[in-house]
Amino acid sequence: MTQLAIRSPALLLPAATVDIASWPVVACDQYTSQPEYWRKTAEIVGDSPSTLHLILPEVYLGAGDVARIERIHATMNSVMQAGLLVPHRGAILVQRTTQGPHGSHTRTGVVLEVDLDAYDFSKGSTSLVRATEGTIVDRIPPRLRVRAGAPLELPHVLLLFDDPDHAVLGPLVARKTELKALYAIELMQNGGQVCGWALDSAAEAHLFSTIGQLTDPAAFAAKYPHAGGAAPLQFAVGDGNHSLATARTWWLQVRETLTNEQRDHHPARWALVEIGNVHDAGLDFEPIHRVLFGVTGDVLAAMHSHFGDDLRIQPAEPASLAAQVAGFGDGQALGLVCAAGAWLVQFTRPQANLTVATLQRWLDGWLASGGATGIDYVHGADVTLDLGQRPGHAGLLLPAIDKSALFASVISDGALPRKTFSMGEAWEKRYYLECRRITL
Fold this sequence. Notes:
By secondary structure, this protein is an alpha+beta fold.
């Protein structure tokens, strides 16, 4: 029998007395260079019960963390004591509809629990659940301080499975009118609408059975003939890699304090996630761009010094740079923008399979040598252009990767370079809604 890395969840949902319009807010790792977004969110929420009070937006990391984290933990306890969360047993089918530059689209997923013992973010992992991108271990400790001692978790992690035939979620969507509707919410700050339905026992049985079939060893080997007998990959982390890595790190610490029997049943062993099909038509892979701060020299000259004749540089207009990068065609190219101008930068002899990997091999060393004082990983070309053109800044616009090749790449080559892609723009990221206890 195929091992499963998932199970039916024990959830907590906002009670009927909660103003549902104020409850969900976007993932904490978004808008990290735009505190104005989070100030506006706080204005919208006001004093209403909201997941905003249960998370630490990463734009504020390092700014009074201790007091903020103590307040978050206290608020988690108070919302439970006040009866603002009610239990719900079972997985939830969710559909999120957003409006973007390419029109309206809907993404489908299921909220459930993933086994952290079946997940390993370390390099060369062969676990059922794996990171798609390199994990920056230095980013775990501040997030660990939030999770340690927290009675609740809220999920923004999205796990992907590879189902080109839509055998897993297609039948569930076809049955959604037969399922119990749990919520239909208009999300703040242009987040679109999210709807949820409770999966009944037959729907859950279908879900777990078909997920298992995808990673049956014989079927897996036939699907990935070039994998060389690699261990089956059931789920690849699409979004929230560092949040899931934090949950795994915390579980390993908790696990050491437990007996073998306690380890089997402790709630911290599991993490609440949404799973979805990488082939979902509503799922777009967007590039994650780079913004450099405190630039001390000429970025273009530094790149030319490193890559030499393997670099081809063409001046460009900032307004059209993102479109040029996206439509470049064969080969590797990125956009560079700073206060002095904008350029399309082509690598004529790439040093890696992906543009982002070619860039990152140079960029890591250049940053280490003092080329800039900081870097942020930004969702959205418009934000990158805006920030990159400010004095002392530089923006690097990257192309998207082909999502249909994701699983084959991770299976054969391991995790991609960190911050390679994003599933959608910042406003399309998962909003916090469901909760789950992670303490006894």
